[in-house]
Amino acid sequence: MTAPLSELPDHVPADLVRHFDLYEPIEGDDDYQTWFTKLQAAGTPDIFWTRHNGGHWVVTRGEDFDHVLKTPETYSSRINVVPRERLMPIVSKPIQLDPPDHTRYRNLLIPAFSPKAVVPLGEKARALTIELIEGSLARGRCEFVSEFARRLPIGIFMDMVALPTADREQLLEWVDEMIRPTQVDSLEAGNQLIRYAFDQLQERRAEPGSDLLSELTRAQVGGNPLQDEELVGMFFLLLLGGLDTVAAMLSFIIRHLASHPEARRELIEHPERIPAAAEELMRRFPISTLVRVVTRDHEYKGINFREGDLVLMQTSAHSVDDRLFNDPLAVDFERKVVFHGTFGSGAHRCIGSMLARVEVRVFLEEWLKRIPEFRLKPGQPLRVEPGMVLAMPRLELEWDITESRP
């Protein structure tokens, strides 16, 4: 359920208003990223206003995506969700901070996502992938979202922060409601996550270990230890990111390979192409939504922005922009891409992007080795639940058991 339509502000011309509801589910035969490019192809303004979710600007092109994310003095991260009433009462550092404060807190997380740290996490991801596949192989079918996408990256993350496996389903329920709300005017799920984060923090303070949350309890910024509220805000952010983003992306990637046997067989016959293929698939299926708040009245591309306006950017605005990529909806494993927007841009570019790349690559290597000929279960329309992260609630796959090879 979304909020009522807002009034049109005086500074927004009526010809820039379009229908766009971030939380409106979409169902059909296409994928969400293709639907998004139809905005670009239909003569939609590069930047338009929607009256949904409190009213805000929507960026549809990569050039403007980069401009907003690389100009934090004009477009601040302090409000990073629509409608603004969904902003939690606790600051999630570093994502709600702007440079230079953002950098000081981001630096605390960098060691956990460095190449040195990611290598062993990749091996854990490989072992967990093999275990999950072997558990489903003989059945000849699976519901990919619940049996794989919401187990592999989430299992790695929960190990990083030493959370009990028994908490997984409850945490996923709260995170789902925060990122893709069924009740836009309710913050109960977020409040539950904050209480959970506070309880975990107290446990780490009492008995610190070697996990990431314990490390943060020992961290300092400017020579001062982090306060409870700062730590809860950082852990809250880690829960939202670690429990949802890679899981959502994996589902889109596997759905594409299930419905494009020629692409799948190319990787089966040439596994050395998987790293490049993983990067191209991540470019093609971006899943995140970013929001900024305007800090001062100004004009950009003939549009009058006012202090307090919210600006929404889906990563699709960059990654599937036909002004930046030739035939952007095509999945081309030979494509030479220097940069794409799937992991954001500017100072806030996703700190976990290296781990995400490793998890996707490892999963493809092991899945294609063991289940080479898989397909979508017939009669299964695609349903996408948009929000701050796009996700598919279900994805039914099947394969011939005789064609599977361990």
Automatic annotation (TrEMBL):
State the Pfam families in the record: p450
Please list the GO terms describing molecular function: heme binding; iron ion binding; monooxygenase activity; oxidoreductase activity, acting on paired donors, with incorporation or reduction of molecular oxygen
Task: Kindly indicate whether the keyword Transit peptide belongs to this entry.
Answer: no
Q: Which residues cross the membrane?
A: 231-254
* Superkingdom field: Bacteria
InterPro entries membership: Cyt_P450 (IPR001128), Cyt_P450_B (IPR002397), Cyt_P450_CS (IPR017972), Cyt_P450_sf (IPR036396)
Q: Does the record bear Membrane in its keywords?
A: yes
Give the record's keywords alphabetically: Heme, Iron, Membrane, Metal-binding, Monooxygenase, Oxidoreductase, Transmembrane, Transmembrane helix
Q: Which family does it belong to?
A: Belongs to the cytochrome P450 family.
PANTHER family according to UniProt: P450, PUTATIVE (EUROFUNG)-RELATED
What is the designated name of this protein? Putative cytochrome P450
The species this protein was found in: Metapseudomonas resinovorans NBRC 106553
